[in-house]
C-alpha cells in the first residue's frame, strides 16, 4: 500500500518541517497530502505512526547508510585540505533496558567545510569505535583531505587506513597510547626547534590563548616507523582565564600527524575537528531532539538519524533566507514554497 520512496519522502519533508516522531510525521502527511502529491502519488494516503515505526525498525541500517553516503557524494565536493572529523555519539533514546538492548553508538564522518555528514557506522558500544572507523573510512572518498580523530582513533591500523585513502591525519595522543604519549612529551621536553602559532578566543565568558607548537624533527621519537605516514608531532597549550573570577588554568594536549606542514595548518585542523560536536552532534540533540525521542524498536533510531542528517544537510545548504536552523524548520512547517525550495535540488 505504501511504497518505500513515498514513506522516505514523507519523513524527510516532515523532519525538515520540525516533526521529530512518528505521530507528528503522520499528522504532517495528512495535513500536507495535496502538497506531497506534487512529488509522489500517495494513492493510499498517509501511513499511520505505527506503520512508520515498523518500517524504520525493519529497514536495514547498513544498506540505508550506504545509500545515504552515495546521496551525500552526489551533492558534496570535497576540496583539497578539507578537514573530515570522525567521532562517535550515543543515541541515548534508543536503549531498551526491558529488552536487554543497549543504546546504539554511531561513528560519523563530518566534512567541516561542506558542513555535511559524509557517512556513519553503527556499533554496539563506544569501545567498538576502533573497528568501526576503518570500515567507515573504506566507504568514503577522502583523497587530499585531512582526517581528524580523538584519542580513541589513535591507532596504527587507522593511521594506515587513512594513508591508503591518500589522505592525511591529525590524531590526538592520550593515555590509551601511553608509550607514544611519553615519547611525544619527551621530544617536546628536549625543546626542539619548533614553529609556533598563537590564537586568541574571547568568547563564552573566558579568554583562551592557544599556542600550537609543531616539529618534524622526529629523530628522538622511538618507534616512529611503526606509525604509517608519521611526519610531524604537535603540542597545543591552552591557557584559559575566566573573565569574571580572573582564575586561570593551563592544559597541554598532544597530536601526531602525517602532514608536512607548519603549526597553522595543524592548529586549524584541530579547531575544525570540534565542528562535528557543535554542528552535528549538538544540532541532532538540541534541534532535532535525537536523545529525547524514544525510538527503541529494532533499527528505528539508526534509520531516523539518517533522515535527520539528510534534513540537516538540506537546511545547512540553504543560504538565502539567513535564518537559524530552528527558524528554517519552523518556516518549512508553515510555508509550502519554502519547503519546496529546501527540497528542490534533491527531488
Mean pLDDT: 91
Strand order of the largest sheet: 3-2-1-4-5-9-8-7-6
- How much of the sequence is in beta strands? 15-25%
Structural class per helix/strand content?
alpha+beta
Treating each run of at least 4 consecutive H or I residues as one helix, how many helices? Answer: 13
CATH architecture label name of the largest domain: Alpha-Beta Complex
Tell me about the biggest sheet?
A: 9 strands, mixed
Rg over C-alpha atoms, rounded to the nearest angstrom: 22 Å
What's the domain count? 2
Using DSSP, what is the number of strands?
A: 9
- Which percent range fits the helix content? 40-55%
Which spans have pLDDT < 50 for at least 5 consecutive residues?
none
CATH class of the largest domain: Alpha Beta
Order of helices and strands: HHHHHEEEHEHEHEEEEHHHHH
And the CATH topology of the largest domain?
Transposase Inhibitor Protein From Tn5, Chain A, domain 1
N- and C-termini, Cα separation: 22 Å
Tell me the CATH superfamily of the largest domain.
Answer: Transposase Inhibitor Protein From Tn5, Chain A, domain 1
Global geometry = elongated
Domain Transposase IS4-like: 80-312
Domain H repeat-associated protein N-terminal: 2-72
Pfam family, one: DDE_Tnp_1
Protein name: Transposase YncI
Amino acid at each position: 500500500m505504501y511504497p518505500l520512496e513515498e514513506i522516505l519522502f514523507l519523513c524527510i519533508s516532515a523532519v525538515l518541517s520540525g516533526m521529530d516522531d512518528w505521530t507528528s510525521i503522520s499528522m504532517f502527511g495528512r495535513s500536507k497530502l495535496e502538497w506531497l502529491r506534487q512529488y509522489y502519488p500517495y494513492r493510499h494516503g498517509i501511513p499511520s505512526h505505527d506503520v512508520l515505526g515498523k518500517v524504520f525498525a525493519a529497514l536495514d541500517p547498513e544498506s540505508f547508510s550506504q545509500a545515504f553516503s552515495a546521496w551525500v557524494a552526489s551533492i558534496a565536493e570535497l576540496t583539497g585540505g578539507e578537514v573530515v572529523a570522525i567521532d562517535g555519539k550515543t543515541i541515548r533514546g534508543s536503549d531498551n533496558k526491558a529488552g536487554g538492548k543497549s543504546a546504539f553508538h554511531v561513528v560519523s564522518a563530518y566534512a567541516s567545510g561542506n558542513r555535511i555528514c559524509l557517512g556513519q557506522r553503527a556499533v554496539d558500544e563506544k569501545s567498538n569505535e576502533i573497528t568501526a572507523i576503518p570500515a567507515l573510512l573504506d566507504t568514503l572518498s577522502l583523497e587530499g583531505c585531512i582526517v581528524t580523530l580523538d584519542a580513541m582513533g589513535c591507532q596504527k591500523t587507522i593511521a594506515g587506513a587513512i594513508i591508503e585513502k591518500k589522505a592525511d591525519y591529525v590524531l590526538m595522543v592520550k593515555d590509551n597510547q601511553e608509550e607514544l604519549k611519553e615519547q611525544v612529551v619527551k621530544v617536546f621536553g628536549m625543546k626542539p626547534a619548533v614553529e609556533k602559532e598563537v590564537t586568541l578566543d574571547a568568547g563564552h565568558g573566558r579568554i583562551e590563548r592557544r599556542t600550537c607548537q609543531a616539529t618534524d624533527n622526529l629523530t628522538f621519537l622511538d618507534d616512529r616507523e611503526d606509525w604509517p605516514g608519521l611526519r610531524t608531532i604537535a603540542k597545543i597549550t591552552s591557557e584559559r582565564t575566566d573573565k569574571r573570577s580572573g582564575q586561570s588554568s593551563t592544559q597541554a594536549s598532544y597530536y601526531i600527524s602525517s602532514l608536512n606542514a607548519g603549526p597553522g595548518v595543524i592548529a586549524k585542523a584541530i579547531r575544525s575537528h570540534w565542528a562535528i560536536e557543535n554542528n552535528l552532534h549538538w544540532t541532532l540533540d538540541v534541534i532535532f531532539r535525537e536523545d529525547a525521542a524514544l525510538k527503541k524498536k529494532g533499527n528505528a533510531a539508526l534509520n531516523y538519524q539518517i533522515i535527520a542528517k539528510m534534513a540537516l544537510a538540506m537546511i545547512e545548504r540553504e543560504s538565502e533566507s539567513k535564518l537559524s536552523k530552528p527558524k528554517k524548520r519552523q518556516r518549512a512547517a508553515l510555508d509550502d514554497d519554502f519547503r519546496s525550495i529546501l527540497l528542490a535540488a534533491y527531488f
